[in-house]
Amino acid sequence: MSPITLLHNPRCSKSRAALALLQQRNQDVTVVQYLKTPLSLAQLEVLMSQLGLQDPREMMRTKEAEYQQLQLDNAQPAELLRAIATTPKLLERPIAIVGNRAVIGRPPETVLELI
Q: What pTM value is reported for the model?
């Protein structure tokens, strides 16, 4: 089995729960604290593809104050990706990645689809 990369925020209960589920199943998990190590634009584009998404909003936390402050309601996809790259708090969490597949761990049990 390929190692699982988990885009993780340790302050998020859902993210902690997803990590615990993977660890309980003895999965090889590489934890990426994306708030400390933000993803580049290129990485975000790949992530969208891995998630099978067309609209970046589907992997964004649109209820965050920063989303409103940046006035992203009518933004185009490229602008949304730039916003995530510069304000990583906007990225939904957790996200588990294996190979060319990824899932958003909401609910946390969703990450188990990758094992």
A: 0.95
